[in-house]
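Next comes a concrete protein, fold included:
___
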Amino acid sequence: MKDLKTAKLGKCACGKTKDPNGNCDGSHAEGRKKNSKKVISALMAIAFAFFSFQSFAKSVDGVVKVKDAKIIWKGFKVTGAHEGLIDLDSGTLEFKDGELVGGAFNVDMNSLTCTDLSGQYRSKLEGHLKSSDFFDTENHKESILKITKVTKADNSSYNIEADLTIKGISEKIEFVSSIYGNKATSSMKIDRTKYGIEYGSGSIFKSLGDKMIYDEFELIIDLNY
């Protein structure tokens, strides 16, 4: 005597049956249920990701504090180069509708260190850079950068104009910043002579020979917020 469930379902062309008589046992329907559950789960995951992104985009609107930063400086001379680190004392980025529109940063000049030298050579260079020949950190403990204009360049890059203050002197600079998620990266070249730092400058002193130090130094900045 046939099973009542099998008899009720009858024969089926699905080919998915364990019944020797070829009667449908409904197993293909169970498969469809499982597939439907997978599709629903996938759609829910996509929806969650979308709304999470929306929430993130909204969360960066307004002024956000920079949590940490890595600032690398590089100085160049005829006979080589030196580089090191300097600390961000405080910093903010300002967003509107998920786009960068402004920001301001204070740099601790006394935190300046050299990373490509060691021992007395490192101490000597760090002391000289902090002296009145260069950044005079005893009298000018902070340098300040304030963004004054932002123009969108592409999906992740911005052309930025800012006022940079070093040793109490403010000058306009321009640079490009890229933003990915909660990270912002920038690279800028700064002419130190515009801030009264003329020591070893070939554009000021014409007979320095291989003791000449180039006017421009570079900052490479990685921010997290």
Remarks:
- The chain has three helices and nine strands.
- The domain at 62-224 is CATH 2.40.128.110 (Lipocalin).
- Residues 145 and 153 are 21 Å apart (CA to CA).
